[in-house]
Amino acid sequence: MQSLHPHRGSIQEYLQELSDPSRYRPDHCPLCHGRDPLRAHGFYCRTLIDVNYDGTIPVRRYLCLLCKRTVSLLPEFALPYLRFSIQVIGLFLVSRLLDRRTLKEAAAAASQPNMPYQRGQFWVRRFQRQTATLCVALVSLTTVVPATDFLTRALQMLEGIGWIVAHRFLFAELRAHLLGWPRFLVPHGCRINFLPASSSA
Fold first, then answer.
1. Is-contact 31 67, C-beta < 8 A?
2. Is residue 195 pLDDT above 60, yes or no?
C-alpha cells in the first residue's frame, strides 16, 4: 500500500531527510490499524521528473509485524503510477486548459519543451474525466468557485488550494488519485478480482 510522506520541501531536501535517523515513521499500520510502529523495510527506487529534477528517488518502505504487509511512503510531490511530479502536471494542465495555450506552449510552461504530444493528451483526458469528482471532493477545503463548467472550476479550486495540498487531502483521506486511478486499479490501489460464478443454484 502507498501512503504519503509528510514532506513539504524540495526533492533535494527529501533526499537528505531520508538519511536522518529521526525521520518520520508511521505510528500505526494504515492497513490493519495496528497501533505498533512499523519496522523499516528498505527502499525501492522510482523515476521522477520535476521542473528542475530528472532522475530516481528512493521511497521508504515499512513492514507491519502484525499483518505482514508493507507500506510505501510516497513523497507528497509525486503521484502514484506517474513519473512526472505534481508541479509539472499542474503547470501543464493550467496552461493548456485554463490559459488555453497549445500543447507545445503548455509543455514549455511546464519546463518540458520536448514532451511528446501523446503525453499531454493523456494528462488532459484523465483530468477531464475527473473534474466533477474533484469539485465535490475539494469543496471541504475551499469555497465553491463560480465557473461555467466543472473543468474550469476544478482547476481554479486546485490553484486556490494548492496542487500538493489537494493531493495530500485526496490521497490521505479519500484514497483518490488527483488524475483518477488507472482502469485496472480500484481506489485502494488494489487489482480488482472477481470470484467465479458458482455453478450450484
1. yes
2. no
pLDDT tens by residue, 81-111? 899 999 999 999 999 999 999 999 999 999 9
In tens, the pLDDT along 139-189 reads 999 988 789 999 999 999 999 999 999 999 999 888 899 999 877 675 554
Q: Please return the burial class of 75, using the count of CB atoms within 10 Å of its CB with bins 0-12, 13-18 and 19+.
A: buried
CA–CA gap between residue 74 and residue 125 (Å, rounded)? 24
Q: Which helix (H) or strand (E) holds 149?
A: none
70-75 vs 2-5, strand pairing mode: parallel
State the CB neighbour count (10 A cutoff) for residue 11.
19
Q: Say which amino acid occupies 154.
A: A
| Cell numbers given for 126 | 484523465
Residue where the block lists cell 513492514: 63
pTM: 0.84
Helix (H) or strand (E) holding 47: strand 39-50
Rounded distance, CA 170 to CA 118, Å?
26
CA distances to 84, 114, 119, 132, 135 from 124, rounded to whole Å, are: 14, 17, 9, 14, 16
Q: How many CB atoms lie within 10 A of CB 36?
A: 11
Question: What is the DSSP-derived secondary structure letter of residue 77?
Answer: T
Secondary structure (3-state) at 6: coil
